[in-house]
Amino acid sequence: MNLSVSFGGSGFLATYQLGAAQSLLDNAAWILQGAPRVYGASAGSLVAAAVVCDQLLEFARFTKQHPLGLLSPAVDIFQWLEVTLRRCLPDNAHTLASGRLHISMTRISDAKNVIVSEFNSSDELIGVKVNSAHFRLWKLLNKHNNLPLLKNAQTLSV
User: Fold this and answer.
1) Which of 138, 111, 99 is CA-nearest to residue 8?
2) Residue scoring higher pLDDT (98 or 58)
């Protein structure tokens, strides 16, 4: 049985989610490696992308450099994320992520929640990742799917 995995949105939980993902890799790697879909919302989408693109340790090292992790005022997570993704992702990252990485976002034009799972280029994947982590609009509209799931699918929620 292959479980999908969903990382919910919350900057406060990102460090916990990183630890949970690392624990799964250490103790039950088959869950993450065999997951047909890995969902993420907001900060959880950063963890989901780190899992799918095998960059979990790089992301964990970055968050440990600051006492408050991603919430530290000294951290420009969006700039770091873009630079790190461009440096670390393989050229075919969009191919690896398409169909497997599902990112919850709020579409600005109509304020509807959408799940993005297909990426035509690495630039598009990076743009979606960076934009999915912005939560200002989510707070205003409160229409963001904070724990994306596929109905009728067995999903492990973190």
Assistant:
1) 138
2) 98
Tokens standing for residue 85: 């993704």
- The residue behind tokens 């693109």 is 53
One-letter amino acid of 139: K
When the pLDDT of each residue in the chain is averaged and rounded to a whole number, the result is 76
What is the token pair recorded at 135? Answer: 């939560």
Greater confidence (146 vs 19) lies with 19
Backbone angles phi, psi at 57, to 5 degrees: -65, -35
136, 106 Cβ separation under 8 angstroms: no
CA atoms within 13 Å, Cβ hemisphere of 57: 3
Say how many CA atoms lie within 13 Å of 144 toward its Cβ: 28
Average pLDDT over residues 29-40: 85
Q: What is the pLDDT of residue 65?
A: 76
What the block records as the tokens of 129 is 């990742």
Longest dimension (CA), the chain: 43
Pairing of strands 113-116, 101-106: antiparallel
Rounded to 5 degrees, what angle do the CA atoms 34, 117, 82 make?
Answer: 95
pTM of this prediction exceeds 0.85: no
How large is the C-alpha radius of gyration of the chain? Answer: 14
